[in-house]
C-alpha cells in the first residue's frame, strides 16, 4: 500500500503560505501568487532543484526585496510562513496507518520538501507518534527522487525500488491527476475525497 501525505494523512491548506507571504511582504495575495508561479518556486524546491538555503534566498529575493525593507527575513520567519500549509494532524489517521502496518507493507509517496517533512515529524513526535520514516517501510519524497507526481516515472521508481507489483498495490491520493497517472500503470488507485478520509477508505481492509 502506498499513501500520499498531504490531505491523506495530514490536512493541508495550499493557499495558506501565499497568504502569509503576502502579509509579510505587504503585497496583494494575487501578486504574490503571480510571482510564485512566474519563478516556479514550489516545483523547483519539491523536485530537489534547489535546497533549503536556495529556497529561502529565492523567497527573499523575489518577495522581501520588493518591500524595500532594510533587513532580510530570518530563516525561521520563512519556514513558519511556509509551514502554514500544514494543518492539525489527526492522531486517528496515524493510528490507522499503524494498524494497517501490522498486516500490509506500507510506503509513503509525497510531493514535498525538507522543511515540510521536518515539521510533520516534529508534529508526530509532539503527539508521541512514530516519525514518517518509522511509520512506513520506506518513504519516497519528490525532492529526493528528483521527480514529482503525476509523472509516470515516480510511480515506476517506487514500484521497482519497493519490489511491488502494480496490480497488487493500492495507492491513496487526494489529487485526481495523480490517481489517473497511477491507474494508467495498473496500480489500484483510490481517490481520497473529503469529507471521507483514509479511515473510511480503508475500513474494509
UniProtKB/TrEMBL annotation:
User: What is the protein name stated in its UniProt record?
Assistant: HAD family phosphatase
- Using the record for this protein, list the coiled-coil segments as residue ranges, or answer none: none
Q: Which InterPro entries match?
A: HAD-like_sf, HAD-SF_hydro_IA, HAD_sf, PGP-like_dom2
Pfam family, any one: Hydrolase
